[in-house]
Amino acid sequence: MTGSKGERAYAWAWLATTSPQHFLPIRKHLVTGEPAYRSCPVPSGRPVALMALVRVAGLRWPIEEGFEFGKDHFGLDHSQVRLYTALLRHIVLTLAALTVCAVTAAQAKTHAPAPILPTTPDQNPPDDIGLIAFTVAEVKRLFILATRRLLPETHHLHWTWWRRRHQARARRYHHVLDQPTEAMTT
């Protein structure tokens, strides 16, 4: 499985339950040894393979990450309403704002140059390391700044440039750490 910090290696097992419609896949992280498990319902009368349950477990992570992002950056859970209609309006407007920012970031990503990543740990960075592509959070910041004028526009553009440059450097050095060193290969 691939996570936000690269490949994640797990050992998988599964247990049958008393119900033919439920299985219990168990994973163990190969580095930390931390176990995790969850009950998985399956359609009755259909055979299921462990790899299918592993694939479904891998799909769950981006969904949970998306909900957490919506809560943290867009206030998806910040409603103090008492009526269903008001709650529905809040959710729809929040998700509409998130969608606009996500689509804008995705379109900007198609125009961003590919990162120049290191191939060896001792490789020097290029003179111009570049910027990361616009993220959803950065697009949201820029939309907010377009409607509020507290500081000069150049101030905000400087900080968005600085953040993206800093994140590009961080990405490069994370990839340096992922490269095998000479001591490990000999």
What can you see in these coordinates?
InterPro entries: RNaseH-like_sf (IPR012337). It comes from Amycolatopsis pithecellobii. This is Transposase. The chain is of the alpha+beta class and 186 residues long. The chain has a domain at 1-73. The protein has 5 helices and 6 strands; from the N terminus they run ββββββααααα. The chain has helices at 50-74, 84-111, 136-147, 153-178, 182-185, and strands at residues 2-3, 6-7, 10-16, 22-29, 35-37, 40-41. Strands 3, 4, 5 and 6 form a 4-stranded antiparallel β-sheet that branches. The protein has a two-stranded antiparallel ribbon with strand order 1-2. β3 and β4 form a beta hairpin.
Question: What is the fold's blueprint, element by element?
Answer:
Elements: E1 2-3, E2 6-7, E3 10-16, E4 22-29, E5 35-37, E6 40-41, H1 50-74, H2 84-111, H3 136-147, H4 153-178, H5 182-185
Antiparallel strand pairs: 1-2, 3-4, 4-5, 4-6
Helix pairs in contact: 2-3
InterPro entries: RNaseH-like_sf
Protein name: Transposase
